[in-house]
Amino acid sequence: AAGVIQSPRHLIKEKRETATLKCYPIPRHDTVYWYQQGPGQDPQFLISFYEKMQSDKGSIPDRFSAQQFSDYHSELNMSSLELGDSALYFCASSSKKQGVVQETQYFGPGTRLLVL
Amino acid sequence: GNSVTQMEGPVTLSEEAFLTINCTYTATGYPSLFWYVQYPGEGLQLLLKATKADDKGSNKGFEATYRKETTSFHLEKGSVQVSDSAVYFCALSVRGSNYKLTFGKGTLLTVNP
Predict the structure, then answer these.
(1) Which of A11, B6, B50, B106 has its CA 20 to 30 A from that of B89?
(2) B16 φ, ψ to 5°?
(3) Would you give per-residue pLDDT tens digits along chain A (116 residues)?
(4) Which residues of B touch A104 (CB under 8 A)?
């Protein structure tokens, strides 16, 4: 079965640079979530999209922005990168069943970002 | 707000030992509860879930029961294997919070042969 695809899998950037992370949800999934997992930490919710509209926002810095496109893939744009942005970034997707958003999220493998 | 507290570990067991990882929660509304597993260097995999009180989730020999009276969702396995070595995260989501997941701190399990 198709899973959530994230690219790139690994990314190395310098401080103050910009990074773009991409997420391709499971086919027919219309809801996307982004999470950040620092070293040895639990994943923290950043932002979510439902039907291409932002549905919720967590502890996402103002330097970060995200959107969901017409094909339901999502991109997380990170500017003015800081050392503390080094983390594993997960995307997860979920679907609707009979018009109701389902609670189960399926995670991608993550993008490991290292800021030097 | 919503929060999850789980036994942080690390937990070290011998193969075929019994496993319990405690998880308790606080939530506004009626949460769904999950256990996710993260193998070294990999992403998060859904292990099991329960969406209402007294539901039991089970998968690959792991079980957890949604206990509303004690706000708990403890993970158990009768006989662990070396391949079960991973980090286990308890998590919840609430419909009123757009189903975003709130995770516990994770428990590192190491199973020795």
Answers:
(1) A11
(2) 75, 5
(3) 678 999 999 999 999 999 999 999 999 898 999 999 998 888 999 999 988 899 889 989 999 999 999 999 999 999 999 999 999 999 999 987 666 667 789 999 999 999 99
(4) 34, 46, 49
